[in-house]
Specification:
By secondary structure, this protein is of the alpha/beta class. Helices cover about 40% and strands about 20% of the residues.
């Protein structure tokens, strides 16, 4: 009975000493990187009204964690951070007409399938850039994602970049019914190439049918986009390809094009994306560790039209990727252990404070010890060196 009471809820986890310390250090590096790029931290409530997520397009689905308030309104634990920050900008920063660069490091909550790297409560770090519609903003967000993944400690990763406008134009030209559109979207989401090729057979316009049938294989660099542009006639598709090429051109100035691979079948889970979208994939892990894109319509739904773009990094997934690559190790050591002979406790405290001011991590004995006892205590406390005050 007692053992059952001491269990933690499914989809949650304890982060033990050592790993928690390394996670905090990683988050600090990421936060410092965001600040260096001109982004300011913002903190929103852990839960919002479920209606706010419905309005944004993030939705209150079966994956959402909801509960009823005393006023009989439905609350929802935040399932992502874009909606709360957009709500905050509209309601609390309404008079600020300039661009707004915000970042966050927060836990979000969503029912997920139980497997490594997928928890119902997980940590995210991310940015939102409000007020800029051009490719310059999207290029900055992509470059900042690369820079932040490096700051986290990752070296080997790739960004898959697509465009929601390209897929929208392609579906328009295909003249599919609503149910056919939804089926095609699911086939793309699940990368079911056989089913997608068969479903596309109903499309009468041959150029569109061929592109749709080959969509899951349309990956590559800017030359792939330029060649595809010659085959397209839909204005949305052409505009999307031009936009991606402009973003790529700007990314050259950031010296990060080696991390970009275009994937025109990329579809993000949330419906609010309107332009460039991307996901980052690291080593030894089968799902994305970072994702985001442009969402220009959300702010209008909140009453203040404003273009926006951003991304979120999954801290827990990054740690899992680094752990599997062997570059993330728990840390539970300290530099110094200060022990003292009876009567010298004040001198020992002063010594420990002096060492801390010098940048050392220090543990101090809480009782007098002999030199032999101090040596054993130093090892037991995972300290690398002993200072004995006699």
């Amino acid at each position: 009975m007692t053992a059952n009471l001491l269990q933690i809820p499914n989809g949650t986890k304890d982060i033990l000493p050592g790993e928690a310390r390394m996670k905090r250090e990683m988050e600090d590096r990421i936060a410092n990187n965001f600040v260096a790029w001109g982004y300011d931290e913002a903190i929103t409530p852990t839960f919002e009204y479920a209606d706010t997520f419905e309005l944004s397009g993030a939705g209150a689905s079966n994956e959402s964690m909801k509960f009823l308030g005393r006023d009989n309104r439905t609350f929802m634990l935040r399932s992502e951070m874009t909606t709360p920050l957009a709500r905050m900008v509209v309601t609390r920063m309404r008079g600020d007409e300039g661009s707004k660069r915000l970042f966050y490091i927060a836990n979000v909550f969503r029912y997920e399938e139980n497997q490594a790297g997928r928890q119902n409560e997980f940590s995210q770090a991310g940015v939102e850039l409000f007020g800029d519609a051009g490719p310059e903003a999207d290029a900055e967000v992509l470059a900042l994602a690369v820079s932040s993944l490096k700051a986290a400690g990752l070296e080997h990763f790739i960004l898959s970049v697509g465009h929601s406008g390209f897929l929208a134009g392609l579906i328009d030209d295909a003249e599919l019914s609503p149910s056919q559109k939804e089926r095609v979207k699911q086939m793309i989401l699940t990368h079911n190439s056989v089913a997608l090729e068969k479903a596309a057979e109903v499309v009468s316009y041959e150029p569109v049918r061929k592109v749709l049938q080959q969509l899951l294989y349309m990956q590559g660099g800017p030359d792939m986009l330029r060649n595809l542009k010659k085959r397209m006639t839909n204005p949305k598709c052409i505009e999307a390809l031009d936009n991606l090429l402009a973003i790529f051109d700007l990314c050259e100035a950031y010296d990060m094009t080696d991390y970009i691979n275009f994937d025109l079948s990329l579809v993000r889970n949330f419906d609010y994306y309107t332009g460039m979208v991307f996901e980052a994939y690291g080593p030894q892990i089968g799902f994305n560790i970072c994702g985001g894109g442009r969402y220009d319509n959300m702010m209008a739904k909140f009453g203040k039209p404003m273009p926006a773009t951003g991304f979120a990094m999954g801290i827990d997934r990054i740690i899992l990727s680094m752990r599997r690559e062997g570059v993330f190790k728990s840390k539970s050591t300290w530099d110094m252990f200060v022990a003292w002979k009876k009567g010298n406790e004040k001198e020992a405290i002063r010594k420990a404070m002096e060492l801390r001011k010098g940048g050392k991590t220090v543990k101090t004995a809480t009782a007098p010890m002999t030199p032999e006892q101090a040596a054993k205590a130093c090892e037991a406390n995972h300290c690398e060196a002993l200072v004995y005050v006699r």
